[in-house]
Design goal:
- The chain has 517 residues and is of the alpha/beta class.
- The protein has 22 helices and 16 strands.
- The strands form 5 sheets. The chain has a 5-stranded parallel beta sheet, sandwiched between helices. It has a 5-stranded parallel beta sheet with strand order 8-9-12-7-13.
- The structure holds adenosine-5'-triphosphate.
- The site of adenosine-5'-triphosphate has 20 residues, from strand 6, helix 7, helix 13 and helix 15.
Length: 517
């Protein structure tokens, strides 16, 4: 969940931001409406805007509409100013939150948005069986290892488990171990005391303490340096952490979920990953099948993103033709759901009228992930490809897969009293801080128009241009560029390092990315 705070919130920015971060949100801030529009147009994006009621909310919402950016806007002001609240709601704000910020109210708004943006759309028996397994283990405090190819929905699954757990009302905190350099990751996880190292100007709590009583997701754990693996193991065993520069251990109560798109057993065998840590984290193993292994999900997920991006871009209803559907079903989805999402986003922008045919479907993965690269699949015969196998085979066997039935949208479990029963409404109207339609269309159109000009160039050459162009388009924001490209941030960083070493001009990280908590 990305929250953008706009304006001064009467001096309560820090308080509101802290509450939101405790609930797992990534918070960024800008002073003005122009700054907010810039952030939403370009790299940073957001899932929710909290705006000071004193700013011109009507003008802001008009600009969003005219640029076809769909995002929920919540106005914030001093509680007693009823007239301002009415004005804000009339201008199009979804809610009015009184200041000083109230933790429960902010949590409720974040949950409502998350409910829309973290739905798992599925109908394939393989995925339904995996979900049932995740639901079974969620209420326990056991550590869970979620494996699966890049972009299969591992983080989504981690959130699902958290929301189905007894910790659902406590923070969900995610750390991407691949995105943070090793020397910063230690302080990110365990925190530091003032003066612990140059630049440590104040005490900072780490993610373990932030996630206290809740769930900590260690994303792309396989990338963690062995020295930190040892410290992590101690934290798990002793249930306490040591902030850098402190000799006073701090007790923590955290449920750990780890993800990896590498075969961690192979990493253990090759000595890159500690076996004891692997067994500590892999008490229960949930392997998400790739899209290729759950073909029945493809039409549903494609339709889901078609609706989402048509709505985000202010376009009318769209539907896929049979030919387009066949094309999607037959594709080898390297970037998995994320690649399918980007494909449907492009299709929405390229198609005219209600029907989306094959001409609007631009499949790019072959250019992005050569065989054998870090992005490529966990082999189907790998132990981690089996959803039901934990270390030592201790995991209860899965129930027989249900028969395919009506398509299901699995909302976050907090919203779901029983199992993953069908949900009436259309999935996910929120959660798409889409770029402006015009910019994205120009982008998509550009890549389509120049295909002839690519002949004669090497794949590596084209890949480099695509990556650097996308990064420039995203004003240097690595996370956003990786999302658009359908590759992991680790792969993007490796590529950028290579281009830098080759003397290419690599855009610096964007301001918003640096500012994002
Ligand atoms: N079943 C699904 N229904 C709807 N959206 C999905 C589904 N699975 C994945 N997504 C979407 O695809 C994108 C990638 O999902 P997510 O980040 O959870 O994958 P991941 O496996 O953690 O990725 P990575 O390997 O890069 O860390 C997200 O935008 C997510 O919302």
């Amino acid at each position: 969940m990305r929250l953008l705070i706009v304006g001064t919130l009467e001096g309560y920015i820090t308080a509101a931001g802290k509450i939101a971060m405790k609930r797992g949100a990534k918070v960024s801030h800008t002073d003005s409406i122009d700054g907010a529009l810039n952030a939403l147009r370009t790299a940073a994006g957001a899932d929710l805007v909290m705006i000071d009621v004193k700013l011109d909310i009507a003008a802001f919402i008009d600009s969003l509409k005219s640029e076809r950016i769909t995002i929920p806007v919540v106005a914030c002001g001093i509680g007693t100013d009823a007239a301002a609240a009415v004005r804000a709601i009339r201008a199009g704000a979804k809610e009015y939150l009184p200041l000083p910020p109230n933790a429960e109210l902010i949590a409720a708004v974040l949950e409502a948005v998350a409910e829309e943006s973290h739905s798992i759309v599925c109908s394939d028996p393989a995925m339904l069986a995996t979900l049932r397994l995740a639901e079974q283990v969620a209420p326990s405090d056991a550590s869970v290892m979620i494996t699966g190819e890049s972009g299969t929905g591992k983080e989504l699954m981690a959130r699902f488990i958290h929301r189905k757990s007894r910790r659902a009302n406590e923070p969900f905190v995610a750390v991407n171990c691949a995105a943070i350099p090793e020397n910063l990751l230690e302080s990110e996880l365990f925190g530091h005391e003032k003066g612990a190292f140059t630049g440590a100007v104040a005490r900072r709590l780490g993610k373990f303490e932030e996630a206290n009583n809740g769930t900590l997701l260690l994303d792309e754990l396989s990338e963690m340096h062995p020295r930190l693996q040892a410290k992590l193991l101690r934290a798990i065993q002793e249930k306490e952490i040591d902030r850098i520069g402190s000799s006073q251990p701090v007790k923590v109560n955290v449920r750990l979920i780890a993800t990896s798109n590498r075969n961690l057993e192979a990493e253990v065998r090759s000595g890159n990953f500690r076996e004891d840590l692997y067994f500590r984290l892999n008490v229960f193993s949930v392997a998400i099948p790739s899209l290729r292994e759950r073909p029945a999900d493809i039409p549903m997920i494609a339709e889901h993103f078609l609706r989402k991006y048509a709505e985000a871009n202010g376009l009318g209803d769209k539907r896929l033709t049979e030919d387009a559907l066949l094309m999607l079903k037959g594709h080898h989805w390297r970037g998995n759901v994320r690649e399918l999402e980007n494909t449907m986003h492009r299709a929405v922008l390229l198609s005219r009228g209600e029907e989306v045919g094959p001409e609007a479907i631009m499949l790019t993965s072959k250019m992005l992930a050569p065989e054998g690269s870090a992005q490529s699949s966990i082999p189907a015969d790998s132990p981690v490809a089996n959803p039901f196998a934990g270390p030592g085979g201790t995991v209860p066997a899965a129930q027989p897969a249900p028969q395919p039935s009506a398509p299901l949208v699995v909302p976050p479990p907090g919203a779901l009293p029983t199992s993953y029963g069908p949900k009436g409404g259309r999935p996910g109207p929120y959660g798409m801080a889409a770029n402006s339609g015009a910019a994205a269309a120009a982008n998509a159109g550009g890549s389509g128009a120049g295909l002839g000009a690519l002949i004669g160039r090497t794949v590596a050459d084209v890949e480099r241009d695509l990556i650097l162009e996308t990064l420039t388009h995203c004003l240097g924001n690595r996370t956003h560029a990786a999302n658009i490209l359908g590759i992991s941030i680790r792969t993007l960083r490796n590529k950028l390092k290579q281009y830098g070493d080759e003397g290419r001009n690599v855009p610096a990280p964007g301001n918003d990315e640096r500012a994002t908590a």
